[in-house]
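Lay summary

Proteins are chains of building blocks that fold into shapes. Our project writes down both the chain and a compact code for its shape. Here are two examples, one after the other.
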Amino acid sequence: MASPAASSASSRTVPARPNLAFRQLRGRLSPGEFAAAVRRSAREIGEQVSCDARYVGRVESGEIRCPNYAYERVFRHMFPGLTLPDMGFAPREAVRGRGARTAAVSAVPLATDPDHRDTRIQIFEESDVLRRAFITGGPAAALGFAALHPIEAAAAVSAPVPGPRAASGGRVGAAEATAVEEAVRQIRLLDDRHGAEGIYRRATHPLRAAYELLDAGVQRRAVSDRLHAGAGELAITVGWLAHDSGRFDDARSHYAEALATARVCGDAALEAHAFCNTAFLARDAGRPREAVRAAQAAQQAAKHLASPRLLSLLALREAGGWAGLADRSGCEQALARAQRLFAGGPRDGDPEWMTFYGEAELAGLEAQCWAALGEAGRAVEHARRAVALQDPHFSRNIALFTAELAGDLADSGAPEEAAAAGDRVLTLLTRVRSARIRAMLDGTARTLRAHRDCGAVAGFLERHAASARSGDGEGDGDGEGGRAPDAAR
């Protein structure tokens, strides 16, 4: 929420009222599931909105009295025949006033192409407070990565980022905490659609700015807690980008930074998230016993968080460690626990970062466990399900699980099907950049070389080799990644 100094006069005189009508429209969906439905509906009409569980919560709490024009079009598409007041919103003229702008868009230069032309992107207004936070400079401007539109990701890689500056009077307030939180959301959105390579180094700038904000001094405890949590989540997000780019040492450092932040501010949810990703990294780095220990520590931190889905994911992290240790019994027990907890359904207490975790992810992670245990047939079954169920919003995850399927098919003795799946991954890698996915596909290609006499396989191997020569999908990391990673952030 905005600090009193940052709030408009109207927001002080009109207290927020819960939007009960909108809550009824959500029905039995969790905030995260409803946010995914909003994003799908937006794509159906050619809109792009970065809706997540927190945005839904802000609407239902009454913090957002009227949506911006893009969200209004999406909501009208989802609920035909309903007006904004029918959905519980205030009329636009009552919120914006006589001086309202018909389009609340501000363009800022972020990159320069080889011909020295400024590449500009648009910052769309969700609320007056957020708009001011992103266009008036100060520490929020140092988190300029948050403003990136997904289709501009490639152009923004080399964009300069200003250093952090304290707000007026040297104080850090709610606007800066909001800027950090929005940076996390927008970086995750870019990662979902494009993969980590090319944005990792860019993302380290807002991370550094966020931690410098912590050192600038925060007077209000509530703002301090938000800023610590936001900086920790940003560290995990940047760590994930390093992880997916094959920079395992960098990822380990960022996750450790997030864990230290969690311990400093006593944030159990942040601690669970940091341990979750540490377990994931340990598995990919070939340290399965560490993966088990970190996953168990995460479950201990999360036991009072009222989120069965979080505990389900953490059980899967543990299962992956047991599979790496070739401990079938331990793996099966953890998998059974994960499935039972997942069946408990979503809850309002589910962390915002878990929006990716649904049936597709559950199936994909189980496929990876069976593959590690040498059960290629069972791995194929679950990998097929993971690909079929994946939300189109998660482009990188589609590439990931299709690569998993290709590898499992190759291991199970179905070379032509494996080659077909591999071809689909190569197509996806023209839009998604991930060293880990590339490493998985390289492993599949090595397995399929024994079947190069088959026409379909030969075609895939030729295309794969050409892609490797041209550098498509490759990044500038060290390439430590191996088989069977997944997509948690």
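And here is the second example, written the same way.
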Amino acid sequence: MYASQKLSLPTLGCGTWAWGNRLLWGYDESMDEQLQAVFDLCVSRGVTLFDTGDSYGTGRLNGRSELLLGRFAKEYLGAGKENICIATKLAAYPWRLTRQSMVSACKSSAKRLGRNVDLVQMHWSTANYAPWQEGALLDGLADLYEQGLVKGVGLSNYGPKRLRWAYKKFSDRGVPISTLQVQYSLLSTYPVTQLGLKEVCDELGIKLIAYSPLALGLLTGKYSQKGSFPKGIRGLLFRQLLPGIQPLLSCLRAIARSRNKTMSQVAINWCICKGTIPIPGAKTVEQAKENLGALGWQLDANEIAELERAAMNTDKKMVQNIFQTK
């Protein structure tokens, strides 16, 4: 039975939100060859967790991220193939109201992938706006696990209180929660630090996945107040946030220099040191190589404290996901 196989999670994963997203990330089909090279490089270097979602892809490209991942996984023949773990998130769309709607959604994802989903995740909790909708959707995830269609079940954007509620619901059926992913970076510590989410996950045996560990690219050091900004919504956000986060960027820069690493690598390594699995995105082989450079070394306690002090001194923080619950 599929569910009895162990879910294998590496130290670092790869987020694929940009794969198919025109609006925010400027995707077009000419990038596919480069994305395949990103996939191959990651797997060959032990980064075998790929996080996607059934809502990823703009307009007619909806589901594109899953289609590409399925194709890349099938065509990859190198080392680590057996460890590839594809994690998808099923959206809590308003028209998904029954447990069967989640089972069907996961089967559609599996069809796009051309293989079973390894880790199925609830993309967000409906607790903030339609709490009555959530129970049936979680039942659907548990059904998928019981039917052996997935190896593990995870959640996304849940805070400690809602997580405990979901945990109880699943454990009544003997279904473990493998993972929980939240927005987490030096610029976004709210659910983890302020709400104490890491302690709750440790207590319940749940692995914490950090999405947006580079704060949409703000922590890469590639953008400055005087330089060019990314297009669209990200550019607007960067204009607002960059002036207030200079102390943190200076600290990242100094540590990166002393370590002979890049700012991105330091920011990702910080997430690893905090006991999470970061899933930075990569659209190019260069970005993938840079992400991989966060592995194989660790920041020391002084550097971690310095970074956290600098983060505390920033005027601005990352915008929280509107679906993040308490």
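What can we say about the second shape? The first strand starts at residue 13 and ends at 15.
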